[in-house]
């Protein structure tokens, strides 16, 4: 009888943990493999994206990965020519995100702009052409002859028929070229800023750990990241969970120096934070070592406790 009672208590405790566990305990979509019979907020996000792409047919989204979710994943995998196993791993999530981006671009470019048109779409066209070096006129929202010639030059350089009419194919090429340019600029700025963040943070190696500390006299983990980022004009709250709730979600394989990395340690959810410095390492205020140290993210302790990463926009000094 005693054995059955202990078993019942164990099962009941597990049930309570599942009920009251914070949703922030779960890693970001793509960092955890999602499959049949799992329950996670990431499943809801997966269902919502598959619904946008026309593969998940239900009207309501849940945290449960059931038969309908599995079939939707299989149907999507078949459509893009990857292994159709119904498991949403990194490759599947990457394809889903790419298709979502493509869908958004198609919706945004489902217009035709031509001579004598006017409005915000023309203003956007002129702005992008100017940034790419094709337009030298005034950005005035009027599709005039200068705009038409700029469109023709862009079309010719991209191997399109030089009609001077900005239809969907031209606009897709324009948005793609502009986004590629902006991505390259942002990446260079981010690399520069990231290096500056890491170099500044390393100055505090060896500073003692202090609970609730956020000055060089002593730091706790979120106080350290708050102090470092404040130096670069980014205001963070003194809380790992709050810092996890902001910024841009970044997958583990796309980590760059300066990104914040989060772990679940002494309690459920994001309870520890550090700054990624590259080569699989991060700098942080360690409770165990009682000071600021550099640690491998692949260490046995942190590898299994990793939750996700956030990228905050930092302007290089």
TrEMBL record:
The record's keywords, sorted A to Z, are: Hydrolase, Protease, Thiol protease
An example GO biological process term is:
proteolysis
Please tell me whether the keyword Hydrolase is annotated for this protein: yes
Matches recorded under Pfam families: NLPC_P60, PG_binding_1
Please give the family membership noted in the entry.
Answer: Belongs to the peptidase C40 family.
Q: Which residues form the NlpC/P60 domain?
A: 191-313
- The source organism is Lutispora thermophila DSM 19022
Output one GO MF annotation.
cysteine-type peptidase activity
| Protein's name in the database | Cell wall-associated hydrolase, NlpC family
Q: Which InterPro entries match?
A: NLP_P60_dom, Papain-like_cys_pep_sf, Peptidase_C40, Peptidoglycan-bd-like, PGBD-like_sf, PGBDSf
């Amino acid at each position: 009888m005693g054995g059955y009672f202990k078993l019942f208590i164990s099962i009941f405790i597990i049930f309570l943990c599942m009920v009251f566990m914070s949703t922030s305990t779960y890693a970001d979509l793509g960092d955890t493999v999602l499959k049949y019979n799992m329950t996670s907020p990431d499943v809801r996000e997966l269902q919502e994206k598959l619904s946008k792409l026309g593969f998940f047919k239900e009207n309501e989204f849940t945290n449960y990965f059931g038969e309908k979710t599995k079939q939707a994943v299989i149907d999507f995998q078949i459509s893009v020519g990857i292994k159709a196993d119904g498991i949403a791993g990194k490759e599947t999530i990457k394809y889903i995100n790419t298709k979502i981006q493509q869908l958004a671009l198609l919706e945004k470019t489902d217009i035709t702009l031509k001579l004598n048109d006017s409005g915000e779409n023309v203003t956007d066209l002129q702005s992008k052409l100017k940034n790419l070096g094709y337009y030298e006129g005034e950005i005035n929202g009027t599709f005039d002859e200068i705009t038409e010639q700029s469109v023709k030059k862009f079309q010719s350089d991209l191997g399109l028929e030089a009609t001077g009419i900005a239809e969907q194919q031209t606009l897709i090429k324009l948005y793609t070229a502009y986004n590629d340019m902006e991505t390259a600029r942002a990446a260079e700025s981010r690399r520069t800023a990231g290096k500056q963040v890491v170099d500044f943070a390393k100055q505090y190696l060896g500073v003692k750990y202090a609970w609730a500390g956020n000055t060089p006299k002593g730091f706790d983990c979120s106080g350290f990241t708050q102090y470092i980022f404040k130096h670069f004009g980014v205001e963070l709250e003194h809380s790992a969970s709050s810092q996890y709730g902001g910024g841009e979600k970044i997958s583990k394989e796309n980590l760059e120096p300066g990104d914040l990395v989060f772990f679940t340690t002494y309690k459920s959810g994001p309870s520890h934070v550090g700054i990624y410095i590259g080569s699989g390492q991060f700098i942080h205020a360690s409770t165990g070592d009682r000071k600021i140290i550099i640690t491998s993210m692949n260490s046995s302790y942190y590898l299994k406790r990793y939750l996700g990463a956030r990228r905050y926009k930092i302007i290089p000094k």
